[in-house]
Structures are given as C-alpha cells and as structure tokens.
Amino acid sequence: MTNAAEANKALILRLYEEAVNQGLYEQVADEITAPDAIMHNALYSGQVGPEVIKSTWRSLHESFSYLRFEIEGIVAENDEVAVRGVTTGLHTGTFRGHAPTGKRISQRAHVFYRIKGGCISEVWPLVDHMGLQAQIQGD
C-alpha cells in the first residue's frame, strides 16, 4: 500500500473513531471534508461539503444513544477507501418519524470514499435503511 493510501485510510479511521464513536462529528467533519464534497445518496441529494457528513451523524446521534460504528473491513488504494461495518445504538430519539422504542439497533453499511488533498471529496454510502426501519417500527 502506498503512503497516500495509508494516509487516506487513517483519515477514514479518524472519521469513524472521532466523529462517530466519540461524537465529535461537528469539529471533525469541518477538518476532514472538502468544501465541495459530494454525497452520492438520494437522502442527501444536492448537499455538499462538511454539512453532508455532519447532518448524517447528527441525525443518528440525536436518535440513537450509545452510537458506535465498528469497522469490520477497510481497504485503501490510491485515492479511494472502502469501509464495511455496522452501526449500533439504542433507539432513544425520534428517527425519520419513528418515535423512540428503546430497542437496540444494528445497521450494516458499505461506504466508499474518494480523498483529494487530504480531505473527503466524495462519498458513496450503501446502507441497510430497510433493515433499520424494520427494527424500529412499532410492534
């Protein structure tokens, strides 16, 4: 692996450890996301820059206590990083119209990043939204 690929991998590891697991998404997103970063996802269509990262994790942190993202696999090559992992937490806040259930949740994700100039420039998330919705729907 090249030095650039190692640095890109470290950047994404920082994203998940500090922004997600430690809840420092406001600060970290500003530091590691390009001003013109693009999220390739229908939920955030048209949003660019650090706010894309912030709004994603803000919504999850407001809705789920004890939020964590466990990386199960990470691969870096040139300017791209691929992550496979699972988000876990406790549903304690309203999420997309679903009242808090107190249920433990687990959501699988595969996320692909492009890094330019030491910052996240593009994100392609593939997330199991339907699986999460099934977990928090009323009984």
The CATH architecture name reads Roll
> Strand portion, in percent?
35-45%
Number of helices: 4
CATH topology: Nuclear Transport Factor 2, Chain: A
Rounded Rg: 15 Å
Average pLDDT works out at 94
Q: Which structural class fits the helix and strand makeup? A: alpha+beta
Q: What is the H-and-E element order?
A: HHEHEEEEH
Low-confidence blocks of residues: none
> How would you sum up the major sheet?
5 strands, mixed
**Mass-distribution shape:** globular
Main sheet: strand order: 1-5-4-3-2
Kindly state the percentage of residues in helix: 25-40%
Summarize the structure.
Pfam families: SnoaL. Helices cover 35% and strands 40% of the residues.
Features:
alpha+beta, single chain, 40% strand, Putative ester cyclase, NTF2-like_dom_sf, 4 helices, 139 residues, 5-stranded mixed sheet, Cyclase_SnoaL-like, Nuclear Transport Factor 2, Chain: A, globular
